[in-house]
Amino acid sequence: MSADEFHRIRRLPPYVFAEVNSAKARARTAGEDIIDLGMGNPDSPTPPHIVQKLIETVQDPRSHRYSVSQGIPGLRRALAAYYQRRFNVDLNPDTEVVATLGSKEGLANLSSAITSPGDTILVPNPSYPIHQFGFIIAGAGVRSIPATPDEDMLRALDRAVRHSVPKPTALIVNFPSNPTAYLADLDFYREIVAFARRHEIWIMSDLAYAEIYFGDKIPPSILEVPGAKDIAVEFTSLSKTYSMPGWRMGFAAGNPKLINALTRIKSYLDYGAFTPIQVAAATALTGPQDCVDQMRALYKERRDVLINGLVSAGWDMPSPEGSMFAWAPIPPQYASLGSVEFSKLLLQRAKVAVAPGLGFGEHGDTHVRIALVENTHRLRQAIRNIRGFLQSGSNIAEPAMAEADAR
């Protein structure tokens, strides 16, 4: 019996990134030096005071027991304090906050908790894969909307409500966005909240990149909008803010009904993160925040090096105002290849790995996502390699790669 015979598996397409990952693995096995800008995997160490709190807590044998699925009270209070400090939003840590095993787990489990088979969900395209596939796994149908925080999205939402059967029940928003790096302002959130309240649509906001911004446009929370908690829940994560991706620590905050639904379903699925991790996460939120400023400065420096270097090399792309990604249009001479074949060609010729835009939805196939996860020395090396590749002018893969792919 094939795994593809299972109903939920049949609804999941082949993993788009697998082709590029396989080619990357083959190149490394052959001893090639690949500069990996594909996965958004922070390369900086977790700040020492957070690690020290983990070590200190794990020495206590009582911390080795089952933890609390909703998150220990001190951690939920720390997240509420962060929202008050950063967004001037009041949260009840007992009814409006739940700790998750990273924001990805929270998004997937809430999708499962609130979805009935056949529901219609509105998801930007392109967007982070779990935004749509969390609902698809739960049996919903997904309707794509534009990913830009502007009138295009608002008009698409209006059309969706008028023409979708059944009427949409939930909407995903994600700003700063992965992969597009778009930022939204509070006026846009006001429009979204008013629309969702009028049509009784739940909003799930992914704010994982709240602290990675490079100018005067500071990302707001949708919960800052009066009345947002009537219909919205927001997901945040410590992965990028504090360079803690492997710790798997995130949160959902907002509407008590949605928080209760997520808390209830999680109570059947997990006992929460390891208690020392939760204690250290609370320290991250309540302790010194200069590490966040340093992280932001690091990504800004990398952004400037990458964008300036690639533009000077002949690859025209916008400079992101936030997130840890550049959303790069495929150069015109290679546009006919699509994002997967272009990514494979870039890997072969320039020894640089990027993420094909198709992996974030069919409307992303004109772009690739470049992650700022290497130091400036490696980024400059990547720029030199890409400049040579662009100047060579060929968009044909070498026979060796084509044969390897055929195998």
Describe the structure.
Helix 4 runs parallel beside helix 10 (275-286), helix 5 runs parallel beside helix 6 and helix 5 (102-114) packs across helix 9. It is globular, with a radius of gyration of 22 Å. The chain has 2 domains: 3-45 and 291-406, Aspartate Aminotransferase, domain 1; 48-286, Type I PLP-dependent aspartate aminotransferase-like (Major domain) (Aspartate Aminotransferase, domain 2, 3-Layer(aba) Sandwich), CATH 3.40.640. It has 407 residues and is of the alpha/beta class. Strands 2-8-7-6-5-3-4 form a 7-stranded mixed β-sheet, sandwiched between helices. The protein has a 3-stranded antiparallel β-sheet with strand order 9-12-11. It is built from 14 helices and 12 strands.
The portion of residues forming beta strands comes to 5-15%
What is the CATH-assigned architecture of the largest domain? Answer: 3-Layer(aba) Sandwich
Sheet with the most strands: spatial strand order = 2-8-7-6-5-3-4
Shape: globular
CATH structural class of the largest domain: Alpha Beta
- How many DSSP E strands? 12
Uncertain runs? 399-407
- Largest β sheet strand count, sense and barrel closure: 7 strands, mixed
Q: What is the N-to-C succession of helices and strands?
A: HHEHHEHEHEHEHEEEHHHEHEEEHH
